[in-house]
Amino acid sequence: MIDRFEVRVRIKKLTTSAVLALAVGAAATGCARFPAPESPPPVAFGARPLPPGAQTDVPREPVPTSQNCDATVSLRPGAMPPPGQMPRGSTMAEILESGRLIVGLDIGSNLFSFRDPISGDIQGFDVDIARAISQAIFGDEATIEFRVLSSADRTQALADHSVDVVVKTMSITCDRLQDVSFSTPYYVAYQRILSTRNSGVTEPRQLVGKRVCAARGATSIGRIQAIVPRVRMVTTTTWADCLVMMQQGQADAVSTDDAILAGLAEQDPWVQLVGPSLGVEYYGVGIPKGQDDMVRFVNGVLEQLRSSGQWQEMYDRWLSILGPSNGPPQPVYRD
Predict the structure, then answer these.
(1) Closest to 224 in 3D by CA, of 109, 63, 65
(2) For a FRET experiment, which of 15, 206, 253, 335 has its CA 20 to 30 Å from that of 138?
(3) Residue 93: CB partners within 8 Å, gap ≥ 6?
(4) CATH number for domain 73-186+284-333, candidates 2.40.40.10, 3.20.20.70, 3.30.2110.10, 3.40.190.10
(5) DSSP secondary structure string, 221-278?
(6) What is the pLDDT of residue 41?
(7) CATH 3.40.190.10, the chain: domain bounds
């Protein structure tokens, strides 16, 4: 049997059709990279089933906003206790006593959280944020239990306390603040469009009547529906499924944050980011409602990442494909 590493070594020997098939499979792992294409992808023959859970022609959703309620304003961090010595009765002390930090994320968001097919480790920018929180509580960045969540499951997982935090490209919005709390923003993304190189789609107005894919629960759905009212929205469980649907000719484009789209583009040389920014998204660590001490603690961890230069190191490691960084987003506190 040929292992994944050997497949990647032999990729230059494969036919164009075989490379397309490999790209579809690699979408599930979230870390394969292919060389730039010399010609458009081949036409897929025969109807293929939609990915499990995919829904077509979904209803209109509200446009997300973080401005109407000053959503990105958060609580000022207090003095950071030494790792392993959390204040008695605090949320952090309960997590310390439990023996692990339970983090909700996914493993299909290349660059942010994905499972490396060689080592099997879960890696990415969001994973490094989670590891920094674990390090601050336990003195060990690996004292974590990862729980895989879809975008649609994030809020409920926090509400029922099945996770301690969610670190999953989760945008801070006024609607979400009704149900969960957030840290200060740790990353700023811009919604754009991902299309195939031979599709002719280079800007939003060309999406009229087209099928545009997004992961269910993403804030990008309402925004693209508002910008292009006649778009045909398709939703899936994961972003990797959106890439597969594009490769199979079942979707014409994907629209969400540029950082997520860049991770998809890393997996397939026949897709590209196009068009201007359609809106700004502020990623924050999701925290159960009412745990203000945990909000302050996580904000303290993020402050350490910014001031120590570790945030920039994480960006350079995972997100340099997006170009030079303007630095971490600066916090605004309400107290």
Answers:
(1) 63
(2) 335
(3) 86, 87
(4) 3.40.190.10
(5) HHHHHHHSTT-EEEEESSHHHHHHHHHTTS-SEEEEEHHHHHHHHTT-TTEEEES---
(6) 54
(7) 4-60+190-279, 73-186+284-333
CB neighbour burial string for 173-186, b if at least 16 within 10 angstroms, e if fewer: bebbbeebbbbbbb
CA distance 41 to 120: 30
CB within 8 Å of 81: residues ≥ 6 apart = 87, 92
Which ranges of the chain would DSSP assign to H, the alpha helix? 4-9, 16-26, 91-98, 125-138, 154-159, 174-177, 220-227, 239-247, 258-265, 292-308, 310-318
- Look-up of token digits 């609607």: 175
Q: Which of 45, 134, 126 minimizes the C-alpha distance to 84?
A: 134
143 near 99, Cβ under 8 Å? Answer: yes
How many whole angstroms separate alpha carbon 110 and alpha carbon 318?
9
What is the DSSP code (8-state) at residue 31?
A: -
pLDDT along the chain (335 residues), means of 10: 38 35 42 49 58 81 78 95 97 98 92 90 96 98 95 93 96 93 97 93 95 92 94 93 93 94 92 94 97 98 98 96 92 95
CATH 3.40.190.10 fits 4-60+190-279, yes or no: yes
| pTM metric for this prediction | 0.81
Residue 67 pLDDT: 67
